[in-house]
Amino acid sequence: MSDTRRRVKLYTLNEDRQWDDRGTGHVSSTFVERLRGVSLLVRAESDGKFLFSIFDVSFSYSQDTLIVWSEADNYDLALSFQEKAGCDEIWEKICQVQGKDPALDITQDPIDESEEERFEEIPETSHLVELPPCELSRLEEIADLVTSVLSSPIRREKLALALVSEGYIKKLLGLFRVCEDLDNREGLHHLYEIVRGVLFLNKAALFEVMFSDDCIMDVVGCLEYDPALVQPKRHREFLTKTAKFKEVIPITDSELRQKIHQTYRVQYIQDIILPTPSVFEENFLSTLTSFIFFNKVEIVSMLQEDEKFLTEVFAQLTDEATEDSKRRELVNFVKEFCAFSQTLQPQNRDAFFKTLANLGILPALEIVMGMDDLQVRAAATDIFSYLVEFSPSMVREFVMQEPQQTDDDVLLINVVIKQMICDSDPELGGAVQLMGLLRTLIDPENMLASTNKTEKTEFLSFFYKYCMHVLTAPLLANTAHDKISKGKMRTEVSHNMIQVMSLCCLLCVDNFQTAQLLALILELLTFCVEHHTYHIKTYIMNKDLLRRVLVLMNSKHTFLALCALRFMRRIIGLKDEYYNRYIIKGNLFEPVINALLDNGTRYNLLNSAIIELFEFIKVEDIKSLIAHIVDNFYKALESIEYVQTFKGLKGRYEQEKDRQSQRLNRYRRDARSLDEDEELWFNDDDDDDDGEAVEKSRMEDDFSDSYGKYMELFETFSFLLQKCLIFTVSVTAGAANGANGANNNGKAAAIPPASPAVTPNNSSSSSVKTVALPATPVVKVMHLEIQLFINAPVISYFLAHITAIVEL
């Protein structure tokens, strides 16, 4: 058997048709008698590891120093020799074995289809590989044999069959024990190469033998003696002494216990012991991954079928008498259990989570997520994430049933919000994870496919009633103009939540961690504005939330100011006049414009975001906002000339003003200013009698009066609608009996006269229209704020007069 070594570089051809350097080493050409073929082995120059081995493929000779070939998986490879003499010698050896002329540039003809079919038809019992005797003196030969077949799928298959049929693995492991007793390092190094190569054969039948209870620790022992290491690793010591198997609840099924041990050890071999596969070996361990996968499926199925075991787990998890250390182990077990379930098929995973739900996983989480132990809370959060990702509807259904059984402060969603608010991690990693879960729960998109069509309405109503005030508590606490007293906080959140906020929320808004928390809350609120419409609109109006959010425009943390601006931008982007009137009434552009002016000439993200907000208003031609901005802020903004946004707003404003002026002038023409044709007609009609002239004159006067009243009424009604006037009604009751007050003592709601109002009898009196309201028998004064658009008597009054005038 000849063996010639030469210094080479190994290259592979990448997708861009460029050659990538895979390392430098020494090549040997070996004739394998039992395989009747030539094998090229490349060992790394630095540590002696195999860089590559290839058996009996079609080689080609190029440029005096290159030998090139293609792999079955479409890899093109090349060996570049340092010396031409070395390349020629290896080429001659290849050609000699394959019976080809060295003068040719290629050694083999491509295998035809009939030959491939002939290989496939070889029965499994027809072994092409004859194994050497399993002896210490033949270990090097065995290692070369195993390494040489890795490049050929057919020969890998035949070698695997031979190893299984002859019980060769157990013989090799017997030699391992002998070598270890004799401290035969050379033999141990060969056994490392052999066992590693057998794993790369990627055959499940071999894994069943190697990972059995009586073999797996010897397999681990073989893999400790890597030739590249000065001293062997102590993997067996770790697996037997350091790694402890904890049974939170005693497992009586011996098969289940054995399967858990096996899965852990095989996972350890894959993740820790075996080196990261090279580009040539990445598919060699696919069956090992499948072996672990199916083991996990089997473990989950066996545990799921053991109802007594799982019932005991959840009973101890929720038992107040359970010790903290025990509860921590139980939570970690459930977490790992859920992680294993991800390997199940969708149908089986559905059954798995339904089983957990029936056993009370959600009430258990409600308890453990509120505990002080950080490890328990982190594990509970992971379990909660598995449940939310699997079925948000299941979690929502449970949550909506809670108010009937518990207080607001211990609702599951409020517990989750509390954990988000009080995350002790400076980077708020847990808070970010919980915020994502909350967004999934309140996302209407994943409510649409539910069989219960009312889920969206019911859950959002529940969330805004019981949970939204808890979510916004840190925001409101950190944007209050005056320090919030605990008495005021109690009107919005429960006593326990006050304690949470006092510990976690009432911090300086310039604190970085607090700023990050507020940014997360604003991101969630911005999501609500975009997806919830009615519910969030009502909440913003009732809490004056946008005003409080815009206080954060003064934060020294630019990212927080941008979050506040993004919240306002999302509101304006809806182009909802209800929001627009709210912004105008509250003068809520002022903090934004102040931030723009304070930013000065700095061209940064904040500047661009504010400019984009006003550009959107201009492009979308939101007339009410344009008029408000120009009327109130144009003098401060007219000096900004590096963009044309504000001049464009002014231009839009002037155009609209001109249109309104023209429209108003068209209706306000004097009824007596007639055109020339009409005047000629009157002058030519001299034959009409005096009575007819008087009648025409009276009709003209009536028309003029009616038209004038119509315009007065039209202007008043338009003004009130545009300004959304809010008026106050003072109601005073009688002191002793409410009956007399109900009869005679009602007070009128005075409407401020924006323009002269018209009385019901069409007189020109300047008295203000009053709307009589029934008194109330309550012995105190009340102030009621009533929106004009829901006041039916006022609307009826205006409509009646408009109709009457139109009929004229």
Automatic annotation (TrEMBL):
InterPro entries: ARM-like (IPR011989), ARM-type_fold (IPR016024), EVH1_PP4R3 (IPR055236), P4R3-like_central_dom (IPR006887), PH-like_dom_sf (IPR011993), PP4R3-like (IPR051137). Keywords: Coiled coil. Residues 5-98 form the PP4R3 EVH1-like domain. Residues 679-699 are annotated as: Disordered. Pfam families: EVH1_PP4R3 (PF22972), PP4R3 (PF04802). GO terms for cellular component: nucleoplasm; protein phosphatase 4 complex. Residues 141-655 form the Serine/threonine-protein phosphatase 4 regulatory subunit 3-like central domain. GO terms for biological process: DNA damage response. GO terms for molecular function: protein phosphatase activator activity. SUPFAM superfamilies: ARM repeat, PH domain-like. It comes from the Eukaryota. Residues 650-677 form a coiled coil. PANTHER family: ATP SYNTHASE GAMMA-RELATED, SERINE_THREONINE-PROTEIN PHOSPHATASE 4 REGULATORY SUBUNIT 3B. This is Serine/threonine-protein phosphatase 4 regulatory subunit 3. It comes from Sparus aurata (Gilthead sea bream). The gene is PPP4R3C.
